[in-house]
Each structure stands twice: as structure tokens, then as C-alpha cells.
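FW: tagging you since you asked about this chain on Friday. Here's the raw sequence from the shared folder, copied in full. Didn't touch anything.
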Amino acid sequence: MTDIIKDFEQKVSGEVASFLRKNKEFEEHNVALFQQEILDLKSDNPLILAFGNQSFKILNKHFRNRYQIIKLPHYSMYISRENYKNEIGKVLGNIGTVIMDNIQENNVKDKEGIKYELKRLQRVYEITPSDEAMNLLIKEGMNSAFHITQISEKKFVERFSKVFGKCLAHEVYAEALRIHSLKGNI
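HL: got it, structure written out here
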């Protein structure tokens, strides 16, 4: 999870748009940084989740022909958690429900907590083949490629082969190792 516009303290979205209209080079610089982050992750076909109208407009303007971009309601919306969960579920289907269930299970109530949960889910999602596998790893405290690689492959496979199957457990571990080594080199 990252921001398309970095190092900008303005919180009022209307003022962000006004600033960006007057400072095109600031937007272009941030778009270049975002593109480099995608290249550093070595993701061939990333799915980009844009939280809020402003983020979606910027991403769509610069990347609509290269990546799949999905617009989501911003997590600072003034609606109940249940209504937010429903909104996310409408857009993302099952993965949206998984995200919101994890937020509810962990009793997250503030924006920073929601950001933490989304980042945690993103980290596990990129190394797992299914929503079920993602949920299982999270419930077992495996919150990132880093966490997975802190135990040996043999122990990981022993622990998760009953659920994933031995072959898939090896694949998940290998992907965690790959992701961890990539991110360690950024």
C-alpha cells in the first residue's frame, strides 16, 4: 500500500486538487515515484486500489492504459463500519469481505488502524493463492513475507501442508522468500 501523492500534508481533498492543478510538476514527480515503486516490486500486472475520487482521478489519468485500477470509497468516509464494509464488498466482492472481516475481527476503529490492516492484508495477499489461504496465514500470525521467512521452509511446510497441501505450502514459502528478498533490496 502506498500513496500516489507523497509528502503532502493537506487533508482537505478540495485543496489537494487545487494545489495539483497549480503545481503540475509536483503531480508528475509523484507519478514517476509511484511508477518506480511498481517496477521495484516486479509486478507484471498489478491491481491498483484507489481510495477516494482524487486518487482515482490521478491514477486513471496516468495509468489507465497500463494497469487495472479499481476505485474504492476512501476509508475516512463518514459512514459506519458496517456500511463501509458493504461498500467495499460491492466493489471487490469476496476479497472486500475478507478485508472488512479482518478489520472488524481486530476491532479497528480509526483511520491509522484501517491503514495498518489494509497494508497487512496486502502483504499477505501478494504471497497467497487464495482468500482462504490469506485468512489462514493471518489467523496464524503470518502477516508478511518477512514473518514467513523467519521460520525454516521445512517447519512452514509441516505447519501448513495439511491445509494447503505440501506442494502449495512450498510455493507459498518460495513466494514469501522472493518477495522478502525483493523488498529487502529496495
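FW: The longest helix spans residues 166-184.
HL: agreed, and The chain has three domains: 1-72, 77-125, 127-186.
FW: great, closing this out.
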